[in-house]
Amino acid sequence: MQRFIRTGAQLADVYGADPVCNRIDRDMDSVRGARLGSEAAMNRLLLVENDPKQEMLRSAFRRANESASRLERTLDGTGAICRQGGDARIDSTGFRLRLENEALFMAEHGRMLCRTLRTEVPGLVWPDCDRP
Fold first, then answer.
1. Measured between alpha carbons, how far is 128 from 121 in angstroms, rounded to an integer?
2. Which of 17, 57, 98, 103 is the most buried (most CB within 10 A)?
């Protein structure tokens, strides 16, 4: 969950100011790694926490993973736009703002996942949800 928060927050900052096209592959790997790590963590946690609260946990993991998948799809589209015209085309099509928004959504869904875990599985030690 911290990877969602940290990755989303870092990418949102970068997309707000820096060139995008030379980062796409590296950013895609970071987002995909956060999503795959989350899926594995969800499977481990839900095997341990076998109770009716699982649906809330599944829902929180699902929202976080969906936000990562949306950012991955946006990065795919960005790659195509970069091949057509580079960062100038990213700015003129509005994809920079879309990337920034999707990264912010990923961070926020990571925070919501963190808060849900702290509430629903209080027996484990969870990090501070509001810090990346």
1. 14
2. 103
